Amino acid sequence: MKLASLRGPGRDGTLIVVRRDGARYVPAGAAIPTLQAALDDWEAKEPELRRLADRLESGEIAGEPLDVQKLAPPLPRAYEWVDGSAYINHIVLVRKARGAEPPETLRTDPLVYQGGSGVLLGPREDIVLHDERWGLDFEAEVCVILGDTPARTKKDEAHRFIRLLCLANDVTLRNLVPNELAKGFGFFNSKPATAFSPFAVTPDELGDAWKDGRVHLKLRSTYNGALAGDPEAGPEMHFSFFDLVEHITKTRSFTAGTLLGSGTVSNADRARGISCLAERRMIETLDEGAPKTPFMKAGDTIAIEMVDGQGRDIFGRIEQKVVTG
Amino acid sequence: MKLASLRGPGRDGTLIVVRRDGARYVPAGAAIPTLQAALDDWEAKEPELRRLADRLESGEIAGEPLDVQKLAPPLPRAYEWVDGSAYINHIVLVRKARGAEPPETLRTDPLVYQGGSGVLLGPREDIVLHDERWGLDFEAEVCVILGDTPARTKKDEAHRFIRLLCLANDVTLRNLVPNELAKGFGFFNSKPATAFSPFAVTPDELGDAWKDGRVHLKLRSTYNGALAGDPEAGPEMHFSFFDLVEHITKTRSFTAGTLLGSGTVSNADRARGISCLAERRMIETLDEGAPKTPFMKAGDTIAIEMVDGQGRDIFGRIEQKVVTG
Predict the structure, then answer these.
(1) Would the pLDDT of A311 be above 90?
(2) Which of A164, B124, B151, B214 is the most buried (most CB within 10 A)?
(3) Cα B139 to chain centroid, rounded
(4) What is the CATH number of domain A76-324?
């Protein structure tokens, strides 16, 4: 089942059920006005939504043509946005890039940060950059959307709380990171609003590609029209989403609609390219002594998508332009 | 105007208008079912709520007796919880306590962290502690609740976006902090659910005590029935709420209902006591070579309140007990 949110009339948008090919949709209806409302009462609402999806898929309901430009992020505002950093290759490269050592517990203790979730960007919304010196970068990621998840959930049970999956562009202002981290309180100004894919899908939509809490597909990033990378999101995700759920629930519970990200998808094989410019800059530094790729500037475009073995675009395409503001 | 949220029937509770003495209330009504709904449309809803408050105050509406036990936090779940650390004395003491240096930009660049906001505690909810070795501590704070606040708001304009004030107990697991900060991504497991005061009040309720983005009143913490501290929340708040708003909006905007905390209220004058046990432990270490006050354990109680010059309890009393779980 593929879900999305049209912008308006309220702040949380309007929940729609989308046909598998992404071309047509049907509103979920007044009883399930928003995705948050569906997540708040998932046991009751999921079957209703699945019935609608089946009728749309079979052609019993024709639905309406979908205009991706009109989509909000699946959750236009969310109660939490927790972002992991589960790809070891990314951590090692980015820390090298800022002259920092990887943490000693790199492979045993997941890294997560708490991001801002009150203002999220839709799949086609511009990234507004106020100052190019801030070093704007994209970060292509896979995310899950949780249902109510109790404290001290173990990884073996974590699958029960994963309602939906989507993609994210975890926009980062690289040049603001070092000073923030030096202060010791984590990222704040360096992480402006994150953008999400058009569609959030139930795990079964991924078929065999959803396995052990990982998505075994390539995540493709296209920067200014050229392929930047298409790393495999599965095998090198050192901590699976199940591990991340166990980690984040160690001391507290999470409410339905919590967004949990994988961190920048990254492969050790350089042929797979990159999912953020910081990695490319580090590779340039290692190979040529200095970075030559600049960070993003006004007019740049970034597209992020994930296509399955049959060539089907699962989550729709994040496609953003940088504008000054 | 004094607002609060009764628990249920939905996840966001039921908005009520509370009489100034805290004894009686009237529901805001179906058109403004929750505090979030009021904040989402504040320009229209505030006058309606004020009219109700006036009628309750004058006795034109009798209202119903208020049972604080039935209160949720003013926002049972919020879109962001951003917590500053604006009292220099607290930063210096707590960093000493963990053998860390204060950041170089201590007095020029505010410290804030992004906290979890999907699950918040009501004023009388237990603090569930799973493991005493985690080093449970309270942190008594003042907070503001923001309306929609645009990116790059300057401190001179910040007052326009401050809708309400309340108190918080920013529960902290001290012994989990050092490892988390060593990883560089900020607090996460070390900050379980935060508790909030019964009432959120409009700034005018504070009269002259609300000045320059600071609350010029004493914040009283009572630990296991004994006064722990009653520091002045005003003069030593190095960064005012206006400064904090300017800081957090440097690179992004915030949605209505964002909670912004002051950080632990702390005075250099030791006679004013403490608003968290970490400070007391550090003072013991400085004076006697080692901390002797243990962190909180099952059965402990913490109360936090703020009383004005006329002896009026403004925000109601946070009163929590630690239980194992």
Answers:
(1) no
(2) A164
(3) 9
(4) 3.90.850.10
Q: How many residues does chain B have?
A: 325
Q: Report the pLDDT value the prediction gives residue A104, as an integer from 0 to 100.
A: 82
Helix ranges (DSSP H) in B177-276: 177-183, 241-248
Structure token pair of residue B154: 């300057």
Q: Where are the alpha helices (DSSP H) in chain A?
A: 35-40, 42-58, 88-97, 177-183, 241-248, 277-288
What's the pTM? Answer: 0.97
Range in A174-183, A270-279, B294-303 the model is least confident about: A174-183
Q: Which residues contact A53 (CB under 8 A, 6 or more apart)?
A: A1, A2, A17
A255 vs B contacts (CB less than 8 Å): 11, 77, 118-119
Please report residues of A whose CB lies closer than 8 A to that of B113: 114, 185-186, 188
Pairing of strands A24-27, B112-115: unpaired
**Cα separation, B231 vs B245, whole angstroms:** 23
Q: With CA atoms as reference, report the closest residue to B316 among B22, B74, B28.
A: B22
> Mean pLDDT across chain B, nearest whole number?
96
pLDDT of residue B113: 97
Q: What residues does CATH 3.90.850.10 cover in chain B? A: 76-324
Distance CA B135, CA A310 (A): 52
Residue where the block lists tokens 């354990």: B297
Task: Check: CB of residue B86 under 8 Å from CB of residue B263.
Answer: yes
Chain A, 76 to 105: residues with Cβ < 8 Å from chain B are 77-80, 82, 85, 100, 103-105
Could you give the CA distance from residue B291 to residue B258 in angstroms, rounded to a whole number?
36
Tell me: cis bond preceding B76? Omega within 30 of 0 counts: no
> How many residue contacts between A and B have a Cβ separation below 8 Å?
142
Compute the distance between CA of residue A296 and CA of residue A224 in angstroms, rounded to an integer. 10
pLDDT at A284: 94
In terms of pLDDT, which residue wins out, A181 or B269?
B269
How far apart are alpha carbons B71 and B91 in whole angstroms? 32
What does the pLDDT look like over B157-191, one tens digit per residue?
999 999 999 999 999 999 999 999 888 899 999 99
Asked if A25 and A56 count as a contact pair (C-beta separation under 8 A), the reply is yes
Residue pLDDT, tens place only, B244-280? 999 999 999 999 999 999 999 999 999 999 999 999 9
d(CA B284, CA B270): 12
In degrees, rounded to 5, the angle at the alpha carbon of residue B299 between the alpha carbons of residues B295 and B303 is 75
